[in-house]
Write a structure and sequence with these properties.
Layout (H helix, E strand, L loop, with lengths): L11 H10 L46 H9 L2 H17 L3 E3 L8 E3 L2 E8 L1 H25 L4 H4 L5 H5 L21 E3 L1 E4 L5 E5 L8 H14 L1 H5 L9 H11 L10 E4 L8 H11 L3 E2 L4 E4 L2 E6 L2 E4 L2 E4 L3 H4 L15 H6 L4 E3 L16 H9 L11 E2 L3 H9 L4 E5 L8 E3 L5 H13 L4 E5 L5 E6 L2 E10 L1 E4 L3 E3 L4 E4 L15 E7 L2
Parallel strand pairs: 3-23, 7-8, 7-12, 12-13
Antiparallel strand pairs: 1-2, 4-20, 5-6, 9-10, 10-11, 14-17, 15-16, 15-17, 18-19, 19-22, 20-21, 22-23
Helix pairs in contact: 3-7, 4-13
């Protein structure tokens, strides 16, 4: 096992100064080489400057101010040191079972989540924009969903087209008139942000149904602390390990106020779900039961957990099962993942669900285009985090423009996730473009289009060298009494050179995200 030098009884400033002056890390297992003895070129030799905004390197070639200590540290040590540390990190992920499942993968379903050792750093000023923008967005989307399933004022006023909402496959007519606890439709949100070439952040899409990935955010931090404790300690990084307790507090917020110890469970589709590791991890961290549909039963419109001591009433369900499968009596009749009668118990107010049924209408990629107007309508504010320009193909002019420019655009199916159902025009073959053209003509409502954007890049370890790879950011917000966005989020990385697809199911990975005080 690698051993790090340990600093005791030093102030944060003294520690940082000490770390910056170090020219070696002691590793008895594999290396003992000083800066003066190093013969190989630095990690950043030949690092290309791409048109995109680079998180670490400024346009003139030097490191940005908040990255300079990290950049100097990366350059000061031999490549084999970083390669050894990357291998150690990969082994930690493997040994801890930090995996995800890929549906249809020929080599098997379970893979270790790819992790890049070089962290992404955000300043306090940058994070303040993200945090306030997420707060604003989540408040507005909750107001939108309440209105949509009650008075529908926003539809009557023509701010959002009625036919766009009613044609959305995630709009649940069964939810009209249902009063959800605390008016919270969306309690857990993972919105995807990108940094565009001018350095500002924009929203690429919202994830409001069953957003995943937060366990990888937490795992990245734990691995970083273990593998590079001195490097991590040299920066004043905000913690993120309180996320499970923030989530638990938000779930408790949905329970009846007279209950001092509500029963909360996490409902998972089971071990074959792509995010099962995360379900088990979060349940364990929160100290609540991890259950499948077969572990629950509905009696007299109340939900009970089957235990060895008999039935125990359930008050709140953190569900990681999609609407379609949640209750075979109301939605998909062939579902074996949900709980028969759950919707009636929910409708009667005898159990709370997080997130609420029907939230998917607000993260439909066509509805997404209207979120700035939704924010203005309910909050009378301009969007702090703007949207990416989006063409709604149900509109004739947008459809015509898109069909004429498919080779230049990114086209997405409105209800898909995980990087599926997407065309990246500049990287697509003629056959792929024509296949999408036919699909769009057959069902324009099912697609939106966006310009092909230059996602920002960050240096990643690639075969012993630092090379730029495109990234995005998924911050996680929980909404109990008030929205709380945990510092950092999940930085996802398109590990393939030139790729813009960051999804793990499509070959992407992630890196630790540091937010400075």
């Amino acid at each position: 096992m690698a051993e790090e030098l340990v600093i005791d009884n030093k102030t944060r400033a003294e520690s940082a100064a000490f770390v910056s002056s170090l020219s070696t890390i002691v590793n008895k297992a594999s290396y003992s080489q000083s800066q003066n003895q190093r013969q190989d070129p630095g990690l950043f030799d030949g690092y290309p400057q791409l048109p995109a905004w680079d998180e670490m390197m400024a346009a003139h070639g030097g490191a940005r101010p908040h990255f300079r200590p990290l950049h100097e540290r990366l350059e000061s040590l031999p490549r084999d040191v970083w390669s050894a540390r990357q291998e150690e990190a990969d082994l930690l992920f493997l040994n801890q079972g930090i995996t995800f499942n890929v549906y249809g993968a020929a080599e098997g379903t379970e893979k270790v989540f790819p992790y890049d050792l070089i962290p992404r750093i955000l300043t306090s000023k940058e994070w303040n924009v993200i945090e306030t923008g997420m707060d604003q967005r989540l408040r507005a989307l909750n107001l939108f969903l309440w209105d949509l399933y009650h008075d529908q004022k926003i539809l009557k006023d023509g701010v959002v087209p009625r036919d766009l909402v009613e044609s959305c496959k995630h709009f649940r007519k069964e939810m009209i008139g249902v009063d959800v606890p605390q008016k919270r439709y969306v309690q857990i949100c993972g919105t995807d942000l990108i940094r565009i070439p001018d350095g500002s952040f924009a929203v690429l899409e919202d994830n409001l149904r069953v957003p995943s990935g937060v366990s990888y955010m937490l795992a990245n931090r734990q691995v970083m602390k273990h593998v590079l404790p001195l490097l991590f300690g040299s920066y004043d990084v905000r913690p993120n390990d309180h996320y499970p307790m923030e989530l638990l507090a938000a779930l408790r917020f949905l329970a009846p106020p007279d209950l001092t110890d509500p029963v909360i469970v996490l409902l998972t589709p089971g071990v074959y779900n792509a995010a099962y590791y995360e379900h088990a991890f979060l349940a364990r961290q929160m100290g609540i039961p991890l259950v499948e549909g077969r572990d629950l039963v509905v009696v007299d419109k109340k939900v009970y957990l089957k235990t060895t001591r008999g039935l125990r009433k359930v008050d709140v369900i953190y569900r990681r099962v999609d609407d379609d499968f949640i209750d075979p009596e109301v939605f998909r009749k062939d579902s074996v993942l949900g709980v028969p009668g759950l919707f009636q118990a929910y409708k009667a107010g005898n159990v709370a669900l997080s997130n609420a049924i029907g939230t998917g209408v607000a993260d439909d990629k066509a509805i997404y285009a209207y979120v700035p107007r939704i924010i203005k309508y309910y909050l009378d504010e301009e969007a702090i985090l703007p949207n990416v320009e989006t063409y709604i193909l149900a509109e004739p002019e947008a459809l015509k423009y898109t069909l004429e420019n498919l080779e230049k655009l990114v086209v997405k199916a409105v209800g898909e996730a995980g990087g599926y159902g997407m065309l990246i025009g500049p990287h697509a073959t003629k056959e792929e473009i024509e296949e999408f053209r036919k699909a769009i003509v057959e069902n324009p409502r099912n697609y939106i289009a966006q310009p092909t954007l230059q996602l920002s890049t960050a240096p990643c370890l690639v075969e012993g060298k630092a090379r730029p790879r495109h990234i995005d950011l998924r911050p996680y917000t929980v909404f109990g009494e008030k929205p709380v966005t945990v510092p950092g989020g999940l930085t996802r990385v398109a590990l393939k050179e030139g790729s813009l697809v960051v999804n793990s199911s499509q070959g992407g990975g992630s890196k630790d995200t540091w937010v400075l005080y």
